[in-house]
Amino acid sequence: MAEGRLAGKTALVTGGGRGNGRAIALAFAREGADVAVHYVAHAAAAEEVAATIRALGRRSLVVRADVARRPEVEAMVEQVYAAWGRLDVLVNNAGVLKRTPFLEISDAEWDWMLDVNLRGCFLMGQTVARRMVAQGGGSIVNVSSVGQKLAGRGVAHYCVSKAGVGMLTKAMALELAPLGVRVNAVCPGTIVTDMNRADAARPEWVEAQYSRLAVRALGAPEDVAGAVVFLAAEQESRLAVGTSIYLDNGRAIW
User: Fold this and answer.
1) Closest residue by Cα to residue 252 from 147, 141, 143
2) What is the three-class DSSP state of 59?
3) What pLDDT, on a 0 to 100 scale, did the predictor assign at position 197?
4) Is 83 part of any domain?
5) Distance CA 71, CA 59 (A)
6) Domain total in the chain
7) CA neighbours within 13 Å on the CB side: how many for 34?
8) What was the pLDDT predicted at 2?
9) Domain span at residue 109?
């Protein structure tokens, strides 16, 4: 019998092969959940995470989809339900980031950012929520960003997409809470992952980050995972509905 805050639960983590998604998927498994690990391009990384989850004594599936395409999303969700019969937790973690000055953002880059970060969150959330309502409830956690509140240079399209995720979280929660589905978000600040590890090795980059924080420390994927586990654990976070938890060392205070 599995033990832990998510014992006996099933979960799907998008972008679960790397970075924050990897940490979330493994934290869920350690808390007793079976975890479907989604990827779109990094199959080997997703397989490695799934193998680690199975080594922890939990079930795991590796599933692929472009989260911005409804047919692929629906096929992936059907795959999970065909295997496990239900889905208790969805973590919308898949996202993209590219730094481009506002005057240089192309239509294609704008559409790509909004498609993956916002449309993907909508499509995954709607598809899974329909199933959760039918099964009697569930929890959805959207991984947003401090960028949903604060603008940044070179990331106008990213910040707009995450601001959309913040409002989508509230709107989903308002409509879905009476139907038994809680929806919340986490908003990481500067988290050291493969995307910025080279930057984090440069003292001047780190100092620039510190200058905007109330606490001089950078985050790790495990910091994000801890908050997501909390929001997924219904006994601990049953009163959390439509909230955004900022994990940014105080950056959003100002």
Assistant:
1) 147
2) coil
3) 84
4) yes
5) 25
6) 1
7) 16
8) 62
9) 10-190+223-247
Q: What is the pLDDT of residue 196?
A: 81
Distance (Å, whole) CA 32 – CA 128: 21
Separation between Cα atoms, residue 130 and residue 36, nearest integer Å: 18
Q: What does the pLDDT read at residue 200?
A: 87
Position 185, amino acid: A
Look up the CATH number of the domain holding residue 128: 3.40.50.720
3-state helix, strand, coil in the chain (%, to 5): 50, 15, 35
Hey, which residues are catalytic here? Answer: 158
Whole-model pTM? 0.95
Please give the full DSSP string across 84-152, using - where no structure is assigned.
HS---EEEE---------GGG--HHHHHHHHIIIIIHHHHHHHHHHHHHHHHT-EEEEEE--GGGTS--
- Give the CA distances from residue 244 to residues 11, 57, 141, 247, 250, in Å, rounded to whole numbers and listed in that order: 20, 32, 10, 10, 14
What parts of the chain have a pLDDT lower than 50?
A: 1
- The answer as to whether 208 is a domain residue is no
